[in-house]
Amino acid sequence: MTLHYGAVKLLIVDDDPIIVDELSEYLGACGYACQVSHSAGHAIELFQQDPAIGIVLSDLHMPGLDGLQLVKELERLSAGERIFEAVIFTGQSESSDVIAAMRAGIADYHQKPIDLEEVLLTIKRLERHRNERLQDAQRLDQLNQKLQLLSESLGELHHDIHQMRNRCSQPPAKASEAVLEREIPSNFNQLSPRQLDVARLIGKGMTNYQISCELGITENTVKLYVSQVLRLTHMHNRTQLALALSPNRQHSDSRFVH
């Protein structure tokens, strides 16, 4: 979700140019950037072109789409990915208009002739409310990311437990397998099966992306495992890690033994 903080931009929609000019001039002088339109169709274009628009002020009764239909169309286009507030103006005082506006989720309702100071107070209140909604949406995104990472970690843990159980149920290793196990440096013994899988693939010179494809996990999860392996084995970088697990390690080490 794209989040836009700071001074909110206004979209003013009314088929009466005098009202549009009056509102935009007053609210502009109060520090708000304004986009103006005299029709719902043009307002929709402006809304789609400018993601900074966060409050829509619209006349209720206009040719073509009315104010409520306009807001519903903007909500449809936003598809839950964009947060905005809406205010409706009308020259009529029928209670049915108010009820329809409230049922449509309109944040506030002002009757013409418009009291500019009241409109300003409404905008400031809605701006605060919108910022709170943006912060809630951001926190929700962060929680969803943490939940996804936790889900992946639990899946990896389940996999490691399954591997460990299988390993414990297997008969003792043959002599050749025992030799192969001894080739792994002792400081790798504390790694979990999945951490050891990642370390061995690093030893083969594979990249994080290749390891993620090999093990069926995300690249971010691979990075997490690499960091854990380096920390637990006291290695400084993946090059040192790869050399420690290289099949030729013992042969290269023997050259320095006299």
Task: Walk me through the structure.
With 258 residues, the chain is of the alpha/beta class. It folds into 2 domains: 9-141, Response regulator (Rossmann fold), CATH 3.40.50.2300; 173-254, Arc Repressor Mutant, subunit A (Orthogonal Bundle). It is built from 11 helices and 5 strands; from the N terminus they run βαβαβαβαβααααααα. Strands 2-1-3-4-5 form a 5-stranded parallel sheet, with helices on both faces. Helix 4 (95-103) links the parallel strand 4 and strand 5 (108-111). The longest helix is centred in the middle third of the chain and has 54 residues, at 116-169. The radius of gyration is 31 Å and the shape is elongated. The model is unreliable at 1-6, 175-182 and 250-258 (pLDDT under 50). This is DNA-binding response regulator. It comes from Pseudomonas marincola. Residues 126-160 form a coiled coil.
Sequence-ordered SSE layout with sheet pairings:
Layout lengths: L8 E5 L3 H13 L4 E4 L2 H10 L3 E7 L7 H12 L6 E6 L4 H9 L4 E4 L4 H54 L5 H8 L10 H11 L4 H8 L3 H15 L4 H7 L4 H6 L4
Parallel strand pairs: 1-2, 1-3, 3-4, 4-5
Helix pairs in contact: 2-3, 7-9, 7-10, 8-9
Kindly report the name of the CATH homologous superfamily of the largest domain: Response regulator
Provide the structure class.
alpha/beta
**Main beta sheet strand tally, sense and closure:** 5 strands, parallel
Looking at the structure, what is the overall shape?
Answer: elongated
